[in-house]
Amino acid sequence: MKITNICCIGAGYVGGPTMAVIAKQCPDIKITIVDINEARIAAWNSNNFNELPVFEPGLADIIKETRERNLYFSTDIDKAIDNADMIFISVNTPTKTYGKGKGMAADLKYIEICARQIAKVAKQNKIVVEKSTLPVRTASAIKSILDNTGNGVQFQILSNPEFLAEGTAVQDLLNPDRVLIGGDASVKEGMVAIQALVDIYSNWVPKEKILTTNVWSSELSKLTANAFLAQRVSSINAMSEICEKTGADINEVSKAIGMDSRIGSKFLNASVGFGGSCFQKDILNLVYIAKSYDLNEVANYWEQVILMNEHQKNRFSDNIVNTLYNTVSGKKITFLGWAFKKDTNDTRESAAIKVADNLLNEQAKIAVYDPKVSEKRIYADLDDLSTRSSDENKNLLTINKDPYKACENSHAIAILTEWDAFKNYDWKRIYKNMQKPAFVFDGRGILDKKELEEIGFTFYKIGSGK
Ligand SMILES: NC(=O)c1ccc[n+]([C@@H]2O[C@H](COP(=O)([O-])OP(=O)(O)OC[C@H]3O[C@@H](n4cnc5c(N)ncnc54)[C@H](O)[C@@H]3O)[C@@H](O)[C@H]2O)c1
Ligand SMILES: O=c1ccn([C@@H]2O[C@H](COP(=O)(O)OP(=O)(O)O[C@H]3O[C@H](CO)[C@@H](O)[C@H](O)[C@H]3O)[C@@H](O)[C@H]2O)c(=O)[nH]1
Fold first, then answer.
1. What homologous superfamily is domain 5-213 in, according to CATH?
2. What is the CA(133)–ligand 1 centre distance, in A?
3. Domain segments of the chain: what residues?
């Protein structure tokens, strides 16, 4: 079966880049990305390519190449569903904020709305692809809705989780480590659907990297991959605290253990804590699933990864307060970076938010500079915590477009995101214009300790003992 028309529901961080790359690599497939968010669709359709809703290196060029050729953005969801032979569901699946499973389980209401809409509109057989990250066995719920509320047409459900990381999305999509497709290979229609999706990816992904499994393995593999990745960060962060007490250096420890081919060198950078929309949400979801099967030891094991991450963020802000003579009240502290990692404008679950909240509770004055995150986003992140009023947040935290201005008269600078540009700043100039003693707290381990100490800074680096 040859797919010629794809609809993707959800024009977010995953739907946008993923479909843009499929459109680039498969010019003969027409792809329409739809969303209920009109502003987001308008931004994807904007001719100001610097204002696309998602910033990813290389993405704007692909949008320029494909938009209106075989890639379209629209709010007409019904029409796109009706025309498509294959529908990707790429809507958000946040942690539930209400009812049973509040604070842990994935909220599947957006997925269910999509399934009901597909069922209502579809007049021909369709392949429905789960692109969103979902709890294991969600496909059976989607199938039940489609089969029971549809117009008697046949649906095949595939699971095709996305493994891209933000900031490197385009490269990850062009050269994925693997593409995972879960489907029901026990029936002919299932086999046909799996093959149809394999054929799409085969346009640019080597065959040996396209893995097919049963649906449940595919759904669970996504949660497992994120749990393992986050676990590595929490493990190295746990060791960073021991390093600080003992005089060991976490970079040296990471290097030493990473050279063991069984451990590997990637994802061993100690930090102020992992952020991003996925790790915490997906591990909480995994913990919830384990608990729902009464697997309490399994649940506790994975929950510790999150607890360690909370601890890492809190101890970073505690260290700032303790080092600044146990009070930051009225003192100016500059945050370099607000995004959850470099090369993205995404701030979801960014460690900066928690660290800022802790310091604002201590009445610090914070100045933020981030090269990609908007002022509106930063205030919204703080306001969403509901710790204090919006006016108080605006009063206590200011945002600068110039990093040097942001650092002027500061008592301390905290590095919250590992933007490359921070390494090349004129640190002598920054030092000159700060309060003395001038402190730097490097939560990402990107600055040179020796160089900064020679300038005169009192320098603290995560995972580096005195
Ligand atoms: N962000 C990542 O790096 C990443 C990577 C891999 C997987 N994922 C998973 O992919 C999924 C999407 O994540 P995201 O970061 O793209 O989310 P997002 O919030 O950026 O985008 C989701 C979009 O879906 C839209 N939407 C919600 N309900 C809709 C509906 N009924 N009809 C039409 N549009 C609807 C929203 O308006 C939003 O624009 C999640 O399950 C996430 O866990 C995310
Ligand atoms: O050694 C490391 C690696 C990462 N991080 C932090 O961990 C967080 C997540 O980073 P990363 O995984 O690179 O970005 P995400 O975009 O969140 O991507 C993760 O989450 C996605 C959503 O599910 C998956 O698709 C990706 O495979 C998975 O890497 C960020 O705050 C990083 O700063 C560290 O602190 N140390």
1. NAD(P)-binding Rossmann-like Domain (3.40.50.720)
2. 9
3. 5-213, 279-461
Question: Residue 130, CB half-sphere, CA atoms under 13 Å: how many?
Answer: 32
DSSP three-state, residue 42: helix
Interface confidence, given as ipTM, is 0.98
pLDDT tens for residues 48-57? 998 899 989 9
Residue nearest ligand 1's atom 15 by CA? 13
Expressed in angstroms and rounded, the spacing between residue 109 Cα and the centre of ligand 1 is 12
> Which tens digit of pLDDT belongs to each residue from 81-133?
999 999 999 999 999 999 999 999 999 999 999 999 999 999 999 999 999 99
Asked if domains 5-213 and 279-461 share a fold, the reply is yes
Give the residue, by CA position, lying nearest to ligand 2 atom 29: 165
Going across the sheet that includes 155-159, the strands are 71-74, 30-34, 5-9, 86-89, 126-130, 155-159, 179-182, 210-213
Give 3-state DSSP helix, strand, coil % of the chain, rounded to 5: 45, 15, 40
Give kind and range of the element (H or E) at residue 66: helix 59-66
Nearest to 226 by CA among 143, 310, 306, 312: 306
Q: Are 197 and 227 in contact (CB under 8 A)?
A: no
**Superfamily of domain 279-461, CATH level 4:** NAD(P)-binding Rossmann-like Domain (3.40.50.720)
pTM exceeding the 0.90 threshold for the entire prediction? yes
Smallest CA-to-CA distance from 394 within 371, 347, 360 is with 360
